[in-house]
Amino acid sequence: MIKVALTGPESTGKTELAQALAEYYDSLWVPEYARGYVENLNRPYTYEDICRIAEKQIEQEKYFVSHLFPDKKYVFFDTELIITKVWFEHVYKQAPDFLMRQLNSGFFDYYLLCSPDLPWEPDSVREHGNDRIFFFDWYRQEIERLKKPYGIVSGFGNERLQCAVSLLEPRAKSQEPRIN
Q1: What is the number of domains present in the chain?
Q2: How far apart, in whole angstroms, are the C-alpha atoms of residue 52 and residue 138?
Q3: Range of the domain at 21
Q4: Which CATH number does the domain housing residue 86 bear?
Q5: What pTM value is reported for the model?
Q6: pLDDT, tens only, 150-161
């Protein structure tokens, strides 16, 4: 199973794309945990809240290490620890060691970095509508620091899905068993 992380700035279609890819490939997707967590707080989030979010993300990753789904080619994660690391560093100027250890473990096989070419859609948890290019560049630097393969997803509607599919197909072919 190829583990794919969808990452990118706010309001770049990560959730819709993760769902669409899971449907397209008849595969699995893991919803973003942070959004629901923060939406349900009745106060501003804290460093400890972000730690809980990171711990849950790690728990989700470990689940897919310990459980096999042989009939599924992919699992798509709607956001991942790079976003959480950047969140920590941007807001609190530090990231916890446990997050860095897991991030450096190399869990994901491939990253889909969503371009901020979609219109900004504000909501109750989005904070950085004017900084999407800044965060896009930061996420790309983090992926490159991990030396992980990635592709940039762009386009509108079905075009965005087709862009992602075209980036994933070579990955799937390289993981298929070879017949001699």
Answers
A1: 1
A2: 23
A3: 2-175
A4: 3.40.50.300
A5: 0.88
A6: 999 999 989 999
